[in-house]
TrEMBL record:
It catalyses: D-cellobiose = beta-D-glucosyl-(1->4)-D-mannopyranose. GO terms for molecular function: cellobiose epimerase activity. It comes from Asticcacaulis benevestitus DSM 16100 = ATCC BAA-896. One of its GO terms (biological process) is carbohydrate metabolic process. This is Cellobiose 2-epimerase. Transmembrane segments: none annotated.
Length: 389
């Protein structure tokens, strides 16, 4: 089968897996974790990233596949987020709940507010629910009011429940403790792009142009790689190259420019986009078709790519092919897909594994705080739409 046909089949198969494994019948919403052996972990905490990404996935699947299950699960996800993750007193979404749905970590990450905007914009697109659109717009206004640094620009990483500074703003332990990060700005860009695409207005355009400008001016380097971490005054604290983020940013930046419909802007970002894609292909992609995770500035290459990097490489390489008509980009995408099927379980009866089968790494959960169907599910939808067009 071709990559185009495979993408359609794989997207529907992923929908089956996530629809059949995550529902929390006892406590509502979705389970917080499915372990590496496909067993539920009923007492696992419930993260806002998993839940907002589930809302995005089921909403996008409802529109793409027409499957009634997806729409029902999108309704379930939207209701649970508004009922449990929303801070009714201070606004914004909590970071983490316990298994019963009570706040466990009440900090407010800009990253998580962005994913809620992204998810509710997609939910609105699938349902035309005016309340969903209002929720997304309210979260955008809150993000602008609370996280934007009026003095020096950019979005602050995190604040406390009542919007006070935090000593530790990191998304995860592996991140540099920096108050402004590429990762958060990339997903604010992604969220604002989708909101502007489904319900454009002057406010959504202004916000999208602002975050895109910051991405281009601060986070895209002349070497074809993203700068990852900054202090408040924009002192660069980047210590590594992230190939997965390079290729993901390439197509998300291009998508933002296309949604804005500005030909001058498209001309401006085109070389930036292709430089990011080319650096990921040239430095991160090996002969077998695996996209490496990252490399440090001392030259150490982490060759064991995570599942999400392979998914983003598929979209990014196809996007570069669409931009250039250069078939070597499609050859790269085909190579990544063959490797992903051979090493990550794509095309089988299960969710993709975190690492390749050949990687000497401990097995990690199939679903959880950081493992969800957003990357690979989105890749299948994007590939099907792009290749059929």
């Amino acid at each position: 089968m071709s990559l185009r046909d495979d993408a359609r089949a794989e997207g529907l198969r992923l929908l089956d897996w996530w629809a059949n494994h995550l529902i929390d019948e006892a406590r509502g919403g979705f389970l917080g974790e499915i372990d590496a052996d496909d067993q539920p972990v009923p007492e696992a905490p419930k993260g806002v990233i998993l839940n907002t990404r589930l809302l995005w996935f089921f909403s996008a699947m409802a529109d793409w596949s027409g499957d009634v299950r997806a729409l029902d699960l999108a309704h379930r996800a939207a209701a649970y987020i508004r009922e449990r993750f929303l801070d009714g007193e201070h606004g914004g979404l909590y970071w983490l709940l316990d298994a019963a749905g009570q706040p466990l970590d009440s900090k407010k990450q800009a990253y998580s507010q962005a994913f809620a905007i992204y998810a509710f914009a997609e939910y609105y697109h699938a349902t035309r629910d005016a309340a969903a659109l209002a929720f997304a717009r309210d979260l955008q206004a809150l993000t602008e009011a609370r996280f934007w640094d009026e003095a020096q620009g950019g979005y602050i990483e995190a604040l406390s429940r009542d919007w006070l500074p935090l000593s530790d703003q990191r998304l995860s332990e592996k991140d540099v403790a920096a108050p402004k990060t590429m990762n958060t700005h990339l997903h604010v860009l992604e969220a604002y792009t989708r909101l502007h695409a489904v319900a454009s207005c002057g406010g959504t355009e202004a916000c999208l142009r602002r975050v895109l400008s910051v991405m281009l001016e601060r986070f895209t380097g002349r070497d074809g790689h993203l700068r990852l971490f900054f202090d408040m005054d924009w002192t660069d604290r980047t210590t590594r190259v992230s190939y997965g983020h390079d290729i993901e940013a390439s197509w998300l930046i291009w998508e933002a420019a296309e949604v804005l419909g500005d030909e001058t802007l498209r001309t401006q970002v085109r070389p930036v986009v292709l430089a990011l894609a080319e650096s990921a292909r040239r430095e991160g992609l090996n002969a077998e078709g695996a996209l490496a995770y990252e490399t440090s500035h001392d030259g150490h290459l982490d060759r064991d790519g995570e599942w999400w990097g392979q998914a983003e490489a598929l979209i990014g390489f196809v996007n570069a092919w669409q931009m250039t008509d250069d078939t070597t980009w499609m050859e790269a995408a085909d190579k990544v897909w063959l490797y992903t099927k051979a090493q990550y379980g794509a095309g089988g009866a299960n969710e993709w594994t975190w690492y390749a089968a050949s990687a000497e790494r401990e097995k990690i959960y199939k679903a959880g705080i950081w493992k969800c169907p957003y990357h690979n599910g989105r890749a299948m939808i994007e590939l099907d739409r792009r290749l059929r067009a």
